[in-house]
């Protein structure tokens, strides 16, 4: 009898159970469907955004790649010169024998032509030893610091240089002595006329290593290899 009673109670509650199930299950399914739709929507939005970014960025990347390619193609496959500083480059022939010491020897040459192009007398004089000698073309030998200073003062009052120089040869002859041979080309501008003219020179530097380990110009000879404008 008790069993029949329990069965009757369960039977009585069966409709209610079905009602609850019918209410909850659709809601759960609906939520899952909405979550699925939201996820697909988010993925779609992400794809659209990624596509837009590609279209926006690709032209820039493409132009950069083209510029890099053009730069490479405009550079000879085997350059005969390498830049060592702003106004000076070194030939492959000289570079082949480069060592740490020859690099130190080249340093005052870089400084010299930079100072020359800037008409900076003090910067030039710092690169010389305390007993310098210059052998300028068509002029008497210039000996000593004061005479060298006067020579540059006179030169910079009359001329402006815009030279690009190539180191052709670097030779260390002993622990304290070395020479550097260079060629220069650029504009030679008389201040009086202000009219620059292409010009070329060749130069020979004799350098001495000081007790401080720095190389300085001890002797300097130069001459033009083309006609110069009147100044």
Comma- or semicolon-separated keywords:
single chain, 231 residues, alpha+beta, Nuclear Transport Factor 2, Chain: A, 2 domains, 8-stranded mixed beta sheet, 50% helix, globular, disordered N terminus
Description of the molecule:
By secondary structure, this protein is an alpha+beta fold. It has two domains: 1-75; 83-224, Nuclear Transport Factor 2, Chain: A, CATH 3.10.450.50. It has five helices and eight strands. It has helices spanning 2-74, 92-95, 100-118, 121-125, 145-158; strands at 81-83, 88-91, 128-135, 142-143, 159-172, 177-190, 197-209, 215-224. Strands 1-2-5-6-7-8-3-4 form an eight-stranded mixed sheet. The longest helix is centred in the N-terminal third of the chain and has 73 residues, at 2-74. It is globular, with a radius of gyration of 41 Å. The termini are far apart. Residues 1-13 and 52-79 have low confidence and may be disordered.
How is this fold's topology laid out?
Elements: H1 2-74, E1 81-83, E2 88-91, H2 92-95, H3 100-118, H4 121-125, E3 128-135, E4 142-143, H5 145-158, E5 159-172, E6 177-190, E7 197-209, E8 215-224
Parallel strand pairs: 2-5, 3-8
Antiparallel strand pairs: 1-2, 3-4, 5-6, 6-7, 7-8
Q: Cα-atom Rg, whole angstroms?
A: 41 Å
Q: Low-confidence parts, pLDDT < 50 over ≥5 residues?
A: 1-13, 52-79
Instruction: Work out the number of β strands.
Output: 8
* Count, helices: 5
Distance N to C terminus:
136 Å
Structural class: alpha+beta
Indicate the proportion of strand residues.
25-35%
Number of domains: 2
Query: What average pLDDT do the residues reach?
Result: 78
What is the top-level CATH class of the largest domain?
Alpha Beta
Shape: globular
């Amino acid at each position: 009898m008790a069993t029949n009673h329990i069965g009757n109670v369960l039977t009585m509650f069966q409709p209610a159970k079905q009602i609850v199930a019918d209410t909850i299950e659709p809601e759960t399914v609906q939520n899952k469907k909405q979550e699925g739709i939201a996820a697909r929507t988010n993925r779609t939005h992400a794809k659209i955004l990624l596509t837009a970014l590609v279209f926006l960025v690709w032209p820039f990347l493409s132009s950069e790649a083209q510029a890099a390619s053009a730069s490479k193609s405009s550079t000879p496959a085997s350059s005969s010169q390498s830049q060592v500083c702003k106004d000076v480059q070194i030939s492959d022939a000289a570079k082949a024998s480069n060592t740490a010491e020859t690099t130190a020897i080249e340093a005052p040459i870089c400084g010299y032509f930079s100072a020359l192009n800037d008409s900076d007398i003090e910067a030039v004089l710092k690169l010389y030893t305390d007993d310098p000698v210059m052998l300028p073309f068509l002029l008497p030998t210039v000996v000593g610091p004061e005479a060298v200073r006067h020579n540059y003062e006179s030169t910079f009052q009359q001329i402006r240089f815009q030279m690009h120089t190539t180191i052709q040869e670097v030779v260390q002859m002993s622990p304290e002595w070395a020479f550097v041979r260079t060629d220069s080309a650029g504009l030679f501008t008389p201040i009086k006329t202000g009219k620059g003219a292409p010009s070329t020179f060749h130069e020979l530097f004799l350098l001495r290593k000081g007790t401080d380990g720095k190389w300085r110009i001890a002797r300097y000879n130069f001459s033009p290899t083309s006609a110069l404008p009147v100044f």
